[in-house]
Write a structure and sequence with these properties.
It contains 24 helices and 26 strands. By secondary structure, it is α+β, with helices and mostly antiparallel strands. Mean pLDDT is 92; it is low at 1-6, 10-27 and 463-468.
Length: 769
């Protein structure tokens, strides 16, 4: 995909300064016994929010902070339940199975899609539920929701001048969307163009059946025609991107009274930097399972882990998540035994952070090299750093010599074991739980990558008894990179250093330092200056102290968060930390970002090193008759090898995206592609996950009464969630968790089992009673 918006995870999202407007109460001396016996109003859930809603138009925004509110006021076509299963929200959950059964009466027992798809997954059809109505914020019932209301969203998103966050998801997946977007953009650049002329571009494609969203209001159905086969398409529909909107002419809508709602809740009070109150929507199609009647969000600027805990202790919120960097909270609630928390009201759940991965970018075209305003010395340094990073051995030296645990320990210090790697190190890019193979016992995609690593490095994936264990080489908490270059690429550290010195000499790479080492810059976030940054600097100091090290990493901190964000996005630092989380359930949601024109292009700038547009520029030369050109001043003895690796990735990415007949083969091929990027060519360094191995929660909400999936907006929804009057005790929690484990195993084996709730036509199979 060319652009994904909310998914770039910035480093400064980790910690921040915190103040609360709505409540200044700070708990003092509250006992754990008191908390266990304290009662709450089960009809009211209290939480915090840190950012005001930017838009009340789901065709405009895809910001995660907006989703906290919008996911509860605007419903999506599909959503996810507590088992991670996709169900129909605005559409009928059983439509696909019923239609499949009409074609083959023996087929629907294993049919695990909500809609109907064709053989190559390029067409998907859904049926809207009956009794769908728009509702004003005051509760007034509006007109019926129609499949054609999705066209209203598409019209809005595909006008570039509207600045929609979600337009790239249309252009990446829907037939005709890219053409509409491009033609409209060209028209908008002309003088004197009317809104009618702009609207007519969409109308032309839509009326001639050249647009891939086809509503049928009479049959109450909608069909999506995709530009290529996408077996994971239903996970995309769990976002609001393709959801209906009430009116496409109202721009980005800053005022919630300007629109109508179709979600489980209605906004009743929206005071910026103060308080947001949502109340149950009496006209919501699945209203029978909206158990919590009122949601109250108080404004919290920033979000330190200890502050969310103390707000719960003072009864200002309904719950919190234990964080490994909240030392007092960890000692009070968990103690020294990670698997046996001191506080019996704490329970473990799946973390939505599991799917997100933080990485260290290697930037191959530091834009300072071409910016005279940066000064001659910085231009020279940036040029030499960019040329240096073309060497595979340089990148391998960085990846296998940086002790990631020294940095990641900031997040995991309360749970780590002495002498072992940080439990939150991550060794793959595609996050855990992003994609599983249903035909292979739901084998996680990360295990496919680990299998490739084992095969390529002759690493055994078995335990001492010769049996396969639950652990695997590239799982979180292992460090297969540190001091392991000999096994991975057949060169030890000294051999790498000698090779790097030769590369520097052969390519006349000059140092600006008195010690003649080649300097690489690493920008750090100003918001983590007193928290994460010291740990990062500890890792860098350890690297810089390596004997005979020809490289030197210099960290620096921009003056503001805006500057820091811009430096990363514009590629004005050689190394940079950021992260990604999934948009849908497929490895391509991560791997697409790494292509020449992927979402990370501004951070890694491979498209600036190898540029297709420079055929007639005398300062560039072609690479191996490829149609790609490299600037003469950038070319090194490793340029061809680097291009070969990147072009191979690009080619395989296009090929693998078309494998739709076998999920196993799709994942196997993607895994080889990912392995090569990170462990053959070392183009980027995976760093860590924000998810602890066990995430402990203290909350009045019943465990697993809502979704924990990282993709879609289900994780923010309160539909079906319910609260207990008191926190559950240890025995109650253990009993429930046993039931849930059994139920999860049943659902993993049979998509039709444990169906309970208004989203199912026969939702009486409650496996958690």
């Amino acid at each position: 995909m060319h652009r994904i918006f909310k998914k770039l995870i910035s480093l400064f999202s980790l910690v921040g300064v915190t103040t609360i407007v709505a409540s200044s109460t700070i708990s003092c001396g509250i006992s754990l016994d008191y908390l266990m016996n304290r009662e709450t109003d089960v009809d009211v859930y209290k939480d915090t929010y840190s950012y005001n809603v930017t838009s009340w138009n789901t065709a405009h925004t895809m910001q995660a902070q907006d989703a906290i509110i919008l996911a509860n006021t605007f419903e999506t076509l599909l959503s996810t339940d507590q088992y991670g299963r996709i169900y129909g929200a605005l559409v009928e959950s059983e439509y696909g199975a019923n239609e499949s059964n009409k074609l083959d009466q023996n087929s629907n027992s294993n049919y695990n899609y909500v809609g109907v798809h064709n053989g190559d997954y390029t067409e998907w059809t859904y049926k809207f539920r009956d009794n769908l109505y728009w509702t004003a914020s005051d509760g007034t019932k509006g007109r019926k929701i129609l499949p054609s209301d999705v066209i209203r969203a598409a019209r809005y998103a595909l006008i570039p001048g509207n600045g929609s966050d979600v337009s790239s998801l249309y252009t990446s997946f829907i037939q005709g969307a890219q053409e509409i977007f491009d033609e409209t953009a060209e028209l908008e650049n002309k003088d004197g163009v009317t809104q009618e002329e702009i609207n007519n571009v969409f109308n032309k494609y839509y009326n001639s059946n050249k647009f891939g969203i086809i509503p049928n209001d009479d049959a109450n159905t909608i069909k999506f025609k995709l530009s290529q086969g996408s077996p994971f398409f239903e996970s995309l529909l769990t976002y609001s991107v393709f959801s209906p909107i009430y009116d496409e002419t109202k721009s980005d809508m800053k005022n919630y009274n300007d629109t109508y709602f179709d979600g489980a809740y209605l906004p009743k009070q929206v005071n910026p930097n103060s308080k947001i109150v949502l109340e149950a929507n009496p006209n919501y199609v699945l209203k029978d399972d909206v158990n919590i009647k009122r949601l109250e969000f108080n404004y919290l600027e920033g979000a330190s882990s200890s502050r969310t805990r103390t707000l719960f202790e003072s009864n200002s919120t309904s719950g919190f998540i234990l964080s490994a960097d909240d030392l007092k909270g960890w000692n009070d609630y968990i103690g020294s035994d990670y698997n046996n928390p001191r506080f019996e009201g704490a329970y473990a759940t799946k973390s939505v952070e599991l799917a997100g991965t933080f990485v260290m970018f290697y930037n191959y075209y530091n834009r300072n090299l071409n910016d005279a305003s940066r000064g001659v010395i910085e231009q020279k340094r940036a040029l030499n750093a960019s040329r240096l990073l073309q060497s595979t051995d340089v990148r391998a030296f960085l990846s296998t010599s940086l002790d990631r645990s020294k940095a990641v320990r900031y997040l995991s210090k309360t749970i780590d074991e002495v002498g072992k790697p940080s439990k939150m190190i991550r060794n793959v890019f595609t996050g855990y739980s992003v994609a599983q193979d249903p035909s292979n016992n739901n084998k996680d995609y990360t295990r496919f990558v680990s299998d490739v690593f084992d095969n390529e490095t002759n690493t055994s994936g078995k335990n001492s008894s010769g049996e396969s264990s639950g652990e695997y080489t590239l799982q979180d908490g292992n460090d297969p990179l540190l001091n392991n270059s000999k096994k991975i690429m057949h060169k030890d550290r000294n051999e790498l250093i000698n090779s790097i010195n030769k590369f520097i000499k052969d390519n006349n790479i000059e140092s600006i330092r008195s010690d003649n080492r080649i300097e690489l810059s690493l920008a750090l976030s100003p918001s983590t200056s007193n928290s994460f940054n010291p740990y990062i600097n500890f890792m860098i100091k350890d690297f810089n102290n390596i004997e005979n090290n020809p490289l030197y990493i210099k960290t620096w901190t921009p003056s503001s968060n805006d500057d820091y964000r811009g430096i990363g996005q514009e590629g004005r630092t050689d190394l940079f930390l950021s992260g990604w989380s999934p948009d849908y359930k497929d490895p391509s949601t991560f791997l697409d970002t790494l292509t020449f024109n992927g979402s990370y292009k501004g951070y890694i700038n491979t498209n600036k090193v190898f540029d297709k547009s420079k055929a007639n520029d005398k300062d560039y030369q072609e690479i191996n008759n490829s149609g790609y050109y490299i600037r003469n001043s950038l070319k090194t003895t490793s340029s061809v090898e680097m291009f070969t690796g990147l072009n191979e990735f690009e080619t395989l990415n296009a090929i693998n995206s078309k494998i739709v007949d076998s999920i196993t083969r799709r994942y196997e091929e993607y895994a080889k592609q990912e392995y090569n990027y990170f462990y053959k060519y070392f183009f980027m360094l995976p760093l860590y996950t924000k998810a602890m191995p066990i995430q402990y929660v203290v909350n009045y909400i019943q465990p697993y009464s809502r979704s924990y999936e990282a993709f879609g907006t289900g994780q923010y929804k309160f539909y079906k969630a319910y609260q207990n009057k008191k926190l559950l005790n240890k025995a109650e929690l253990e009993d429930f968790m046993k039931k849930f484990k059994v139920a999860q195993e049943k659902v993993d084996k049979d998509w039709n089992s444990c169906r309970f709730g208004a989203e199912w036509s026969n939702g009486n199979d409650n496996c958690l009673q």
